[in-house]
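Protein modeling request. Please complete all fields; requests missing the sequence field cannot be processed.
Requester role: graduate student
Desired output: 3D structure, token encoding
Chains: 1
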Amino acid sequence: MTDLAPLAHLDGVAQAELCARGEVSPDELFDACMARIDALNPLLRAVVTVAREPPGPAKSGPFSGVPFLVKDSTPWPGLRWSMGSRLFAANAAQRQTPYGRRLEESGLVCAGKSAMAEFGLLFSTETLLEGVTHNPWDLARSATGSSGGSAVAVAAGLVPLAHANDGGGSLRVPASACGLFGFKPSRGRTVPAGFGGSDFGDMTSDHCISRSVRDSALFLSLTEDRSGGAPVGFVREPLARKLRIAAWTRTPQGTEPEPAVRRAYDEALALLTGLGHLVVPIEPPSFDSPALGDAFLLVAGAAVAGIVESVDQTRDLPVQRDELEPYTWALADTFLARGDDALPRARATFARAVHAYQEATRGYDVVLTPTLATGPWRLGHLSPVLPREELARRTAHAIGYTPLQNIAGCPAMSVPLHFPEDGPPIGTHLAAAPGADALLFGLAYQLEQARPWKDRWPPYSIPALF
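Delivered output (466 residues):
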């Protein structure tokens, strides 16, 4: 069963079930995945490192034998670990993370590493190290980012699901742009996925981008930290109760989304109302948006400065300007120029924004907004060689709904409910209070049943082309 298209249609759970019944072997699943990557990756450039040989027999688990990708932000033993940066182009991971061990124990088989923005800093996937990753719905448009490679690989049918992470929307935004389900867990919900931390790292949640809700729900049940609190477990069923949903469209910059995005939002609102939920349009939280955006960039700059300092301590030659992208240097330089109180001031700004968000959404189960204020932008629109100020302005125009959940530690998801005939998909964003991951999954199952998306394939995908 090594034809390109049949297996590409199946999500991870379905592939594992085939394998468990003996209808396909783990080797056949892996070989078919390699064939799909060979067929389309030269065009899409979603996979930056291919694991040509599986690491051995797949472990017995709920995903046994299923191939997947790991975002290049995260180490995987024996594979290159560049983080999208020329500084680490020759870097290879030597040891496994607790997160990776959970994935191996589930039976997942790593087929390679997916493309990302340098250090996950930009909402695009077009680095000076790897080049451009193309959106399979429109090759002239961005896959967005920073988890663009993972989203493209799943949307194109190269793998059924792919690891991704989210520090401000880096998982949810490419899921929206590529017509997929993207779930960001609550802060601290999963075991650690990397080594060491920073304020930026503390805001980042690791999970996956998938085609089905059940793949995502199972993935979380396998990676969650069971040492404290009640675990989510494997959520399997649609929600059985009605929700109070707060809704708004105005961005933190005080603008409304593009008309196509507004139409998608209105459709989602009507769908939720039709399912019996009470959707209440409210005023969005009020806070100093420019200050919050500046604080976010300062925290990112602090993370970059920490990386540079660590590398400088391990070699005689300090990090050179051509080893990092211009935007990355600009973030670090700006942070260092602000002085010792930069991080405390950024944290205080975050705290005020979180308070405003909590006050505005008090008494509601879920928050509804668009995922993006615009559709996916043209390639080059968020190029890392553009000036920091211009990139900040362009990012703020499109990205306004997703970062608050990272700052507040909330679970959130982008659900693919809108597929225009004349452009890429448009995601709907839903968030809940910290710890309410199971509630969001239940709502996601309900939406997936009401508006199925599993057969929506982009023109540059294995099912569409083969």
